[in-house]
Amino acid sequence: MNESALYYEEEDSFWQGVKDCVPTLLGYLSIGFAAGVVEKTAGLSIAEIALISLILYAGSGQFIAAGMIAAAHPISAIVFTIFFVNSRHLLLSAAIAPYFRKQTIGQNILTGALLTDETFGVAINHAQHKKQLNYKWMLGLNITAYLNWVLANIAGGFFGQWIPTPEKYGLDFALPAMFIGLLILQIMSHKKYFVDIIVALSAVLIVVISSFLFPGSAGVIIATIAAATIGMVIERWR
User: Model's pTM, two decimal places?
Assistant: First the structure.
């Protein structure tokens, strides 16, 4: 086996995926902890908190579920609301799918089931100048994030009785801070500052305007599609 093949195998191994997930762990731990606190406040037991984090595995979805459970909303309303809020994952999956065309259906299902905003951000950044992503690397990335999220939820549920207001300690800003870091790293890696700035400004403007016209997170989805289209058009015309 030549040196380039060895480098590729090490760069895209399962354990490398685990290592590449480390920068996102603070976001998972803090937001997961806050979610556990909120779920405990909503009346869920530790076992129920563990179960909802294992099955639902969605930060915004779990916050919504906890609030709606506490308000005694029907299950159908909870399911519909969470589905709508997390419909952005259809876009994430569509964007990352081309990098896994050579994988089996079962592998793609597992990759999609464990895909989150954070692991998507790491994967897209890792996919720069690559035609495909290694399944083992993605599995290491996803599983590390998944386990940390579940443990953080359980810890939040356990210690939640002593932390009634997690936002007081800045835990609610950990997730945005993590995404800002990932965005900066991605911008610096391909150095297309003009396009990136135009896309970012377009996304902000569109999401603000859309928030007055559409409910919930629909504005975010619209802004994502529109800003990405603007960036593509600019690159084609340059």
Answer: 0.70
